[in-house]
Design brief:
Helix content is about 5%, strand content about 40%. The protein contains one helix and eight strands, in the order H-E-E-E-E-E-E-E-E. The N and C termini lie close together (about 10 Å). Bound molecules: zinc ion.
């Protein structure tokens, strides 16, 4: 079973041009799938905003982002000051990303 996801639409999205994509993010080292993420606008992925982590919930709002499989630390908590918005600042090359279609996403809870 899969769920049709809808993008969050708010001023953050507007600030980035008003369009979004779903990304499937994996650990570069062990290829473990980490999360589904809503990426707003163009440009490279430098930060992961907590409010854009679709699933799983237990990766949000921690001091650091760690791969559950190989325990590599992939990023650390930061606040994006311009928007007062908590996020993980990613380490360069720590994460692999793949664009996925919303209707192809199967959330962990439903596997
Ligand atoms: Zn890993």
């Amino acid at each position: 079973m899969s769920t049709k996801l809808t993008f969050k639409s708010d001023r953050f999205k507007k600030n980035r041009g008003g369009y979004s994509r779903w990304l499937s993010l994996s650990c570069e080292k062990c290829k473990n799938q980490l999360m589904i993420y809503q990426k707003d606008g163009p440009g490279i992925l430098k930060r992961l905003y907590f409010d854009r982590i679709v699933s799983p919930d237990d990766l949000k709002d921690k001091e650091k982002l760690e791969c559950k499989e190989c325990k590599t630390v992939l990023g650390i908590r930061t606040i994006y000051k311009k928007e007062s918005r908590p996020a993980y600042r990613l380490f360069a090359g720590a994460i692999e990303k793949k664009i996925v279609k919303g209707n192809k996403i199967v959330l962990w809870a439903q596997k």
